[in-house]
Amino acid sequence: MLVDNTRKASYKILLSLATMLGAIVWSGVLQGSSFKMAGSRGERFGLLDSTGKSVPINFNSGYRSFVDSVGATLTDSSRSLLAQEILKNDSFFFRNWNTQYVHIPEKSPISASDSVELYLIKESEQFFFNYWGVFFWGYGMRWGRMHRGLDLGLNIGDSVYSSFNGIVRYAQFNSGGYGNCVVIRHFNGIETLYGHLDKLLCEPGDLVLAGELIGLGGTTGRSTGPHLHFETRYRGNSFNPELIIDKNSGNLFSHTYKLSKNEITDPVSASSGSSSSSRYHVVKSGETLSGIARKYGTTVSKLQRLNNISNPNKLRIGQRIKVR
Ligand SMILES: [Zn+2]
After folding, report:
1. Strand ranges (DSSP E) for 129-255?
2. Around ion ligand 1, which residues have CB less than 5 A away?
3. How far is the CA of 229 from the centre of ligand 1 (A)?
4. Beta bridge partners of 320
């Protein structure tokens, strides 16, 4: 009995030590300094700049600072070497790394406390906001389902840039509605998502800096016209980009942001909720009811019943059709 209690006590101490250690590592991660690499290893590693000169690795003030200071000078292959090294070594931050799934949400990502301090930009890091002057939609409920980003009007072919420094996690056509879509994981702890692109100009594993070209804007996927669908996510869970970005100036409100638990939307519970609720489609030029039925995996007669449509050939552009 006595032994058992002692065991329990030491187990408890171990647990709280692990939690403390986790918190320290985590705050280190957000600063981009959770691992060190010996200088000799860096040289053997062979990072080169575009003139062919060797660039010694120096993580003394964290890899985040290092990437920011030399990232732009490196050759493409040196950049991906550096990205691989960061991914390999910083297992805590880059856990749940997946190039095939657009979302990899963690349940209760803010559980230790009720908020987490995000160091959005550090020192000389930059921020870039893609905005062409036309704002269509914000974050929140729309047509009975959650809209998790900002819809920013553009012309097909307009350049789309990365908002922060980071590594591309996902870049492919997404059949769930995003169309050609890029997700970048940033060193500040958040991911940004860029949907409906016409062309993808980056690949998973690419190290990108704020303001660097990642794709061209378009209207692929579930989209009613050319625009960029832009999301910000913390450990897979979306939050309103307007919490951190002043869209009128295109700047961040502040270099840091305290993200609280109630500001993130858990996509696990939200998406299971939306499966039972209605969904709508807005008719575009040239669309037919049978085409729309195919797109949503339903039938023409079901759509007719749901929407009280007697003549399936009489659709008008802009008409809202209940598809579920
Ligand atoms: Zn959108």
Report:
1. 135-137, 140-142, 145-147, 150-153, 159-161, 166-174, 179-186, 190-197, 199-200, 207-208, 213-216, 227-234, 237-239, 245-246, 251-252
2. 151, 229
3. 4
4. 282
Amino acid letter for position 287: E
Between the CA of 172 and the centroid of ligand 1 the distance, in Å, is: 17
Tell me, in angstroms, the distance from the centre of ligand 1 to residue 143's CA.
Answer: 12
pLDDT band of 44, cuts 50, 70, 90: low
The answer to whether 300 touches 293, Cβ cutoff 8 Å, is yes
Express each pLDDT in 116-169 by its tens digit: 999 999 999 999 999 999 999 999 988 888 999 999 999 999 999 999 999 999
Q: What is the CA 281 to chain-centroid distance, rounded?
A: 25
Ligand 1 mean position to 166 CA, how many Å?
Answer: 22
* CA 142 to ligand 1 center in whole angstroms: 10
Q: Is pLDDT above 90 for 30?
A: no
